[in-house]
Amino acid sequence: MNQTYVTRRAPASSFARGRNTVRHTKRSLGSISQIVIVSMLTLVFGLIYVAEGTRATSFDYEISSVESEITEMTAKKEDLAVEKARLNSVAAAKNSTVAAAMEDATVTGYATD
């Protein structure tokens, strides 16, 4: 390891009597520590990626359920519009003067051969 000596009092380049010197050793991570750190970072980023992908999928399911509800409501609206038109035509037929002048249908007989 590379050792350097640095004075603690003044930035003098030479050692003199009464000056304190401190030995500093350069420290670095080993290759195994670096591999562990890189693998942990990869694992964390992978978990974040999976979590975000899952969230997007759940939003997709919510959107499709809302779209199916919209389709059902549109079909019900069309059915109700047909029913409204039928009821309006029946009411108009009952209140018309032509219908009031008609006689009730009665069975007079059956045709037989």
Describe this structure in words.
There is one protein chain. This protein is mainly alpha-helical and 113 residues long. 0% of the residues are buried. The protein is rod-shaped. The protein has helices at 31-95, 97-101, and strands at 3-7, 21-25. The protein has a domain at 30-95. The protein contains 2 helices and 2 strands; from the N terminus they run E-E-H-H.
Features:
single chain; 113 residues; mainly alpha; two-stranded antiparallel sheet; 2 helices; 9% strand
Low-confidence stretches: none
The general outline is rod-shaped
Q: Major beta sheet, specifics?
A: 2 strands, antiparallel
Mean pLDDT: 82
Radius of gyration: 46 Å
Instruction: State which percent range the strand residues make up.
Output: 5-15%
How many β-strand stretches?
A: 2
The helix/strand series, from N terminus to C terminus, equals: EEHH
Q: Numbering strands along the chain, what is their spatial order in the largest sheet?
A: 1-2
Q: Report helical residue fraction.
A: 55-70%
Distance between the termini: 124 Å
Q: Give the helix tally.
A: 2
Structural class category: mainly alpha
